Amino acid sequence: MSYRPREFWDRRLAEHFDLRGTGETGLSLAYNRACYTLRREVLERALREAGMDPAGKQVLDVGCGTGFFTAHYLARGAVVTGLDIAPTSVERLRARFPDARFVLADVSEADIEGRFDIVNVFDVLYHIVDEARWEAAVRRLGAAVAPGGLLLVTDTFVDLGALASHNRMRPLERYRAVLEPLGFAFSRLHPTHVLLNRELGPFRFLNRAPWLLLPLDRALLALGAGHGPAVSKLLVARRAG
Asked: Residue ranges of the chain with pLDDT lower than 50?
């Protein structure tokens, strides 16, 4: 069966409207909570380095899924708009977060209304497998960033090819080619995991111990690990003011 993004993600979120739905469905909820805890910590560190306090800022949470980052930004005092391709996501999050606004849209097809201080795009763009649609999505997301604002994107930023029917990683050069003409400057990449959220081969039994992997990953990231080609990373790009 060919990959149809709206159907794929709506079915997946309907079956697992928790962090497994947007993370690893074959692993425990505790494992996925550990992965997202680390993502949040990396995000907070990157925002501090960029001098961006979300309080009072306009934030677009792209691929809002089950609302993990929406909840984070709301707790930090941001004004949040969530955007997702899946009707299940938008319908449920509207009920869960009445103080936020939610939009059902596909960024590879439709322009984004408004301008935002932070455009948060965690684990979304590598799920757009068609090259033309991916480029259109990146360009639209860049255009949605206000002058002086930040675009936050995760990928491996290495060309690993098609890892699955719904996964295609792109190198950093591809992002630069689209975003630099829009006035973006790139800071360093922030690895989001080392052992979590990746294939551990003969050590995959460790996935049953997220309580162990989380502090290990924190320590390894603090030591500067996580820059291998298979590791997800957070790109922080600032648009010229």
From this structure: none
